[in-house]
Prior knowledge:
The chain is mainly α. The protein has helices at 2-36, 40-43, 58-66, 69-100, 106-118, 121-134, 141-164, 170-177, 182-193, 195-210, 214-219, 228-231, 244-264, 266-274. Residues 73-265 form the ABC transmembrane type-1 domain.
Amino acid sequence: MESRKKRMLINSLIYVLYAVVLVFFLFPLFWVLSTSLKTVPELFQTPIVWFSSDPQFENYAYIFERTQILTYLMNSFIIVASTIIISLIVAVPAAYALSRFKFKFKKAFMLFILIFQMVSPVVVAIPLYRLFVQFNLINMHWSLILVYVAIQLPFTTWFLKGFFDTIPQALDEAAKIDGCSRLQMIWKVLIPVSTPGIASASILVGVLSWSQFVIPFILLDDSALYPVSVGLINLQSTAEAITTHYLAAASMIAILPVIILFVALQKYIVGALTSGAVKE
């Protein structure tokens, strides 16, 4: 009886902790959504208006009609999609080599990759700007994509290496017996069975790249080239106008593609996280 009460108490505390974490992450999203549907007087009304009695969906219409939000979204899509594709093209063979091959200083090399992942983009932003100015690489999407790839590649390689470790090497041997080359083995055997891990890596790289602010803010001067994370700063309130509700509406539009991507591919994330739970 005592053990049952103790177990119920522990479960109750766990669910309370879950609820606290859920509120911690969902409340900012709710507040931005609420702000995006308010009028200007409701922004400063006391007591606080948690949700407008007359939601102003016109705020969203204003964003689409009077701003470059669609251009910003398209720029972000091009940059993020290119970053994901190039990162995977480089990271998949690199992760396979680290997972399957034994060579001298392998642990040191992996530690070196991890150290690179620990370096914040903010640290290298100013030197990177000076270098890009010197080589006339400012205001170019492809140069920004290369920087994104360099930032995301260590994490992508490390993540995929851990996933490839869970795949039995017996599959490699079977592919060799069937006459597959190393490249064919990766393309025809490893990639199909690694779909959950590759999809999870793609989502994480996409989310991190979509939310990147410092690098594009420094390397891009032309507003027509801005990704959505940088384009949003044009909607900040000024002394002449209060645009907090418009900024909130644009923010909701900006995060919508990431939410859709996550929901659509969540089954692959679960598969990647549980793939190594049981080893034969």
